[in-house]
Specification:
single chain; mainly alpha; Arc Repressor Mutant, subunit A; 7 helices
């Protein structure tokens, strides 16, 4: 199931479901996101989030920066305008993405995969 959701998200915004969820969280943080805060919010390991942020940065969807007056070691992450556009496209296609669930209900999916897919979709759409 998560594979189908991933495919639908990728078709719309050239993102994986994981990247879309991370990008959504970055946007919701209002410029306060760090890899550590994202890892805590999403319940993932820091190295996993670092990899996701690196991928988003390579695509030009997020930018890292420091804030004047803050400890220089604190690196904030913000979406770029391209990142905002990609996330808007994914959210605009939410009916199609959610259609992946309607087309193939979770009944045959393992419980962990079902929970992961549902959690990702809820985060992505801000529910």
């Amino acid at each position: 199931m998560q594979g189908k959701l991933n495919g639908r998200v990728a078709a719309v915004g050239a993102l994986t479901l994981n990247q879309a969820v991370v990008l959504s969280e970055v946007g919701l943080s209002n410029g306060r996101a760090t890899v550590s805060t994202l890892a805590a919010t999403l319940g993932r390991a820091v190295h996993t989030l670092t990899s996701a942020i690196n991928g988003l940065e390579r695509k030009g969807l997020v930018a890292r920066h420091t804030v004047a007056g803050e400890d220089r070691r604190i690196i904030r992450i913000e979406p770029t305008s391209a990142g905002d556009d990609a996330l808007k496209a994914v959210r605009a296609a939410s009916a199609d993405i959610i259609g992946a669930v309607a087309d193939d209900p979770f009944s045959a999916a393992p419980a962990a995969e079902t929970k992961g897919a549902v959690d990702a979709a809820l985060r992505l759409f801000g529910v």
